[in-house]
Design brief:
alpha/beta, Rossmann fold, seven-stranded parallel beta sheet, three-stranded mixed beta sheet, 16% strand
Length: 355
């Protein structure tokens, strides 16, 4: 049976892709993950008995290990989700982001190139390496306009810079060596199983427990929100039809200010749990010191992926947010298991400002 290799498949977006792939596709899936703090096998529990799924604990930065994995399973595609992904953590510890996102991705590309070179002409033509990236590589927008695939990269955080570098390596491996790489740049993802350092799960859990709801600065920073299940469907379209050397922006055209998102979560929690002692949840909102270098606005133009690959988002923001709130309220055990002593929803990303 044919197989694909997914790296970072125990993280938020990676595990969503793995679960969706096994529910709707037939090929085997080899899942390579280092299991850092944000990668957790509990996110794969729904498919733990699926024989088409093989989990492998390992590091994309270990070339010999990755080479053996490729030789053993002969995948027709590699999807690279493996990354350090939290902007605030990148401000505190940028070197870890360089190590995983830049050095790790270049090492994975090296191993994949050597594997791809040994394939038959037909298999080389059909092979794909998908570099899963972010709209943050483009920098910040003003009050108008959208990011297109032609927008120059202008990263403003260590995280964004590391992802931009990884994208450049993927593009260079196509132009220099012919490796059929494809790059995707997606807007802010949300949904079930997201580690609670990110805005939406953090606010849901804090609202439930009566803890302060931190809003950076004036709360008017705008993000384009994308339900993770829609993102995964877009990635499957890219894998099936995407052209080597191309990049595809993936977004739902759903701009919201951070404050509006927090208020929507507060209202959703209050509707479901009207008897909370700290109700209404909006009373918990606290404006806090802004993030250093905080980009003001992101907005994605997803025309290309719609026109060329036929993808469109299915979920509205309100519907997807409601489903996400319901999931976190019903899955406190998952939250408790993935939240270790290394992270208890404290503020990150100000270490260098206070040093």
């Amino acid at each position: 049976m044919a197989a694909i290799l997914v790296t970072g498949g125990a993280g938020f977006i990676g595990s969503a892709f793995v679960r969706q792939w096994l529910a709707e596709e037939t090929d085997r899936l080899v899942n390579l993950d280092k299991l850092t703090y944000a990668g957790n096998l509990d996110s794969l529990a729904p498919i733990e008995h699926d024989r088409r799924h093989l989990f492998v604990h390992g590091d994309i930065g270990d070339r010999a290990f990755v080479s053996r994995l490729l030789a053993e399973h002969c995948p027709w595609a590699v999807l690279n989700f493996a990354a350090e992904s939290h902007v605030d953590r990148s401000i505190d510890r940028p070197a870890a982001f360089v190590e995983t996102n830049v050095v790790g991705t270049s090492t994975l590309l090296e191993a994949t190139l050597a594997y791809w070179t040994g394939l038959s002409a037909r298999d080389r033509r059909d092979f794909r390496f998908v570099q899963v990236s972010t709209d943050e590589v483009y920098g910040s927008l003003g009050a108008t306009g959208q990011f297109t695939e032609a927008t120059p990269y202008a990263p403003n955080s260590p995280y964004a810079a590391s992802k931009a570098a990884a994208d450049h390596f993927a593009r260079a491996y196509h132009r220099t060596y012919g490796l059929p790489t494809v790059i995707t740049n997606a807007s802010n993802n949300f949904g079930p199983y997201q580690f609670p350092e990110k805005l939406i799960p953090l606010v849901i859990l804090n609202a439930l427990e009566g803890k302060p709801l931190p809003v950076y600065g004036d709360g008017q920073h705008v993000r384009d929100w994308l339900f993770v299940e829609d993102h995964c469907r877009a990635l499957r379209a890219v894998l099936a039809q995407g052209m080597p050397g191309e990049s595809y922006n993936i977004g739902a055209g759903c701009e919201r200010t951070n404050l509006a998102v927090v208020e929507a979560i507060c209202d959703a929690v209050s509707r479901r749990l009207p008897d909370l002692p700290h109700a209404p949840c909006r009373s918990l909102i606290r404006h806090v010191e802004d993030r250093p270098g905080h980009d003001r606005r992101y907005a994605i133009d997803a025309t290309k992926v719609g026109r060329e690959l036929g993808w469109q988002p299915r979920a509205s923001f309100d519907t997807a947010l409601a489903a996400t709130v319901d999931w976190y309220l019903a899955n406190r055990r998952w939250v408790n298991r993935v939240t270790t002593g290394l992270y208890r929803r404290e503020r990150l990303g100000l270490a260098r400002m206070s040093a």
